[in-house]
Design brief:
The complex is a heterodimer of chains A (about 325) and B (about 260). With about 325 residues, chain A is an alpha/beta fold. Chain A has helices at about 40-45, 65-75, 90-100, 105-115, 135-145, 165-180, 190-195, 215-220, 235-245, 270-280, 295-305; strands at about 1-10, 10-20, 25-30, 55, 55-60, 60, 75, 150-155, 180-185, 200-205, 205-210, 225-230, 260-265, 285-290, 320. Chain A has a six-stranded mixed beta sheet, with helices on both faces. In chain A, strands 13-12-14-15 form a four-stranded antiparallel beta sheet, with helices on one face. In chain A, a hairpin with a 2-residue loop joins β5 (about 55-60) and β6. Chain B contains eleven helices and no strands. Classes of the chains: A alpha/beta (about 325), B mainly alpha (about 260).
Amino acid sequence: MRDLVREYKGGIRAVDGLDLDVATGEIYGFLGPNGAGKTTCVRILTTLLRPTSGRALVAGCDVVRDADLVRRSIGVALQEAAIDPLMTGRELLRMQGALHGLRAREARGRASDLLERVGLVEAGDRRIGGYSGGMRRRLDLALALVHRPVVLFLDEPTTGLDPTSRAALWREVRALNNEGTTVFLTTQYLEEAEQLADRVGIIARGRLVAEGTPNDLKARVGMPTLHIELAEAEHAGEARTALEGIGPVEPPDPRAPTRVGVRSASGKGAIAPVVRLLDERGIAIVAVEVESPSLDDVFIAVTGTGLEGGAVQPPEAEAVES
Amino acid sequence: MSAASGTLAREGRVVLALGRRSLTIQFRKAQLLMPTFILPLMLLAVIASGTSAAQGLRGFPDVASYVAFIVPGTIIQGTILAGLTAGIALASDIEFGFFDRLLAAPVNRVSLVLGRLAATIGLALLQSTFFLLVAMPFGARYSGGVDGAILAIAIAAITAAGIGGIAAAIALRTGSLSLLQSLFPFMFVLLFTAPAFFPRELLNPILRDVAAYNPLTYVVEAVRGLLSGTSVGDPLTGFAAATGLALVTTGLAVLALRERLRTQ
């Protein structure tokens, strides 16, 4: 998309000059807090909303001029997409098949295949009103896949789901991506973006404020820190001097006299040299912990604010006992 | 198969699928079933028991039974309710996001409106048949025979599409479920400004003048004429009124959808 703008009544710009490229076959995570413009952007890309200005192409087709061609190429699972509670999963899948031009027999077969794929075979003939949140999201995903789309839009697909359901949906999204489907995923969960996305775009107030792989983005705000817990505080000074060869050493913390911190771009890869270095000097180590900057740190760094309502991922930590 | 007929067949499948979905929901949702099937029957019972003496008035048509005379009013009431529920269901789809699912599919926008109205037609066919059958044990006889009844039901179904078209246009323009629900009282205005339960000749002069501009007047009289096998109403005029209403309001609904898509 190029210079995409969407202005609502009253001059509010939900999307404000967005430039974005998503490569075929990648999972692109679109990250931002509520009201950042994610959903407006997805609605434009899925032809549900016209841009005020600018241009967007999906699967090579213009979302305004070739809207029908875009609709043939995309699968959409919208955040607020209602699923009829009075219909069964199978009925809804068959209807969706008809909407995408499948004949009755074809739609029946596809519905059965998809119910199996998302693990809803037993629930397929039950009314959706009795489905759990996770089952509804899986059905929503199945509905988006009826016509085998090349691009899949998932708008906050796991919001409100329990960890097990979330993990199941992530597995399915990865599997779809492995089959060649390009996935455009909006989320306010940092962990989700980190787990799934090849690249992440951070949107704030309708503008793209940062973009890159999760690791690139995190590297931009700083290097991982190795926290080394020594057996004896008296060796802390010597350890700090020795570790200067690894990277910048953190100043001593009087509240944790046995703890020494050193930053290294190698992250976990620096554990072995650190252990070896201190071992050579006879300095006993109790534990080593690696703390990476999180996407939340990235988000705060680029927007000056945290993700309101977003689940903040705990720091990546790996402990080595010695 | 040519490209045009292929497209037509595809859109036909879409209309049928959407119609089936709407009817399925209608029959699984008690709050939609009650007003469309039970409310008209209750009014029929009240009017049949309370005003049957009207049959003795001078100028009242010579009909086999009073129930048979007022059943066309019940049928038309049913068509109005079927049409209104189409608008309510559409507004509900818009408000709760289901309509977005339809808009994101590669289907002709006209098919989205026709799919909804197909369900309204199906509902009206079932309703009208149900009302005719239920009235029989209470003395209703249809001298027009099965042919007359079938034509009467067909006209009623087209009329339901006409009312559904208005309701759909309002739903598409406003997207407001509560507005559609507030339109229920207007059903009675439409109903009682047509000779639904009383002969036009015996209406008060002002109401009689208003009735001349209400397309339902010609529909209800045509249905009455077809069922009774008399010339109390002209079937062709009724058919023309119903078809005209359906075409105009379906057009309005399509325009409302286009406007919605253009301005949202």
